[in-house]
Queue: 2 jobs
Job 1
Amino acid sequence: AQKVTQAQTEISVVEKEDVTLDCVYETRDTTYYLFWYKQPPSGELVFLIRRNSFDEQNEISGRYSWNFQKSTSSFNFTITASQVVDSAVYFCALILNTGGFKTIFGAGTRLFVKA
Amino acid sequence: EPEVTQTPSHQVTQMGQEVILRCVPISNHLYFYWYRQILGQKVEFLVSFYNNEISEKSEIFDDQFSVERPDGSNFTLKIRSTKLEDSAMYFCASRRTSGSSYNEQFFGPGTRLTVL
């Protein structure tokens, strides 16, 4: 079965703290794609990053960084020096290389960043 | 930059009424999707559509739901007789290719459906 688990339902931090959002996925497929999306209070889904299963390089983009580890089936997301504007729900998602390429979302982690 | 658009942004309807949610996918995309997000919950796959037919659907997508691409640009989701539990945000998405190589799925801004 394919599944994405985000064990942290809510995280609350104070501005400028670093925070890591965990994501664990399950699939038997060897080819797949992992994503992170941000959902601000306005409700839209904002694409943050895509990783394919053959590329385990970690990535940094400004204050955001991602740690992909196939050995533990994890794709964690770290925000460095968090800001109030980072407050949102963050979804980890999985797409398999099957005919339909549907997206399987995790339950989401709600991040509160307090000033 | 091309984007997926959805109308209306918010729809309020009475239980038992039919609603049609509209989406305009990105013009050169071939795969289309609908997802649903009940308030405070995760985003769930409803249906995928390719070459004018449904390619996959979830158990949520029962006989009350239907999808259509009535012309070259719109992609619609119809709920025949809405129930209170259909209240949710509905996201449309599109993807460029049907080939084995993946291309990013682009999401629209969503339509919030409220059933009273």
Job 2
Amino acid sequence: AQKVTQAQTEISVVEKEDVTLDCVYETRDTTYYLFWYKQPPSGELVFLIRRNSFDEQNEISGRYSWNFQKSTSSFNFTITASQVVDSAVYFCAPSNDYKLSFGAGTTVTVRA
Amino acid sequence: DTGVSQDPRHKITKRGQNVTFRCDPISEHNRLYWYRQTLGQGPEFLTYFQNEAQLEKSRLLSDRFSAERPKGSFSTLEIQRTEQGDSAMYLCASSLGISRNEQFFGPGTRLTVL
């Protein structure tokens, strides 16, 4: 069975602080992709960053970065120098080729 | 705008009525997906098409639900004899057809069943 867990329900930070979101994906698959999506109050899901399971090198894309720990199946996603516009629900979503399996999401509130 | 579009954006209907939603994917994308999202939850997969072929359906998709993608372009999702439990946001997404490619989502159709 596959299971994706976003243990943090809500995170509140002050603008310019870094925010780290946790995602644990338990699966027997050795090869998969994991995606992060953002859902702002307007409701439309926006793709942020993609990560595969076989490359442990950390990645950075603008203010977003990944940290993958294979031993714990943990994908940590960091927003550096948060801004008020980063306030949204963030979803971790592994893919099994065609289907995204979304976690419950973490609500991030960035206060000015 | 060359993104995924959905119509209508909002639909209010009475229990027992039929409703149909439309999704227009990004034009060069051969895969099209439907998801359902209820309040406070992440989206849940319903079904997907590769070109015009419907390749997978979730157990969430009861017999009252049917989806089509004629000619591999736009798709429709029909719910017959709606129930209050069908109230949700119905999301459509499209992608180029390999697993590493991200899915692009439309704005969704919010269904309210009274």
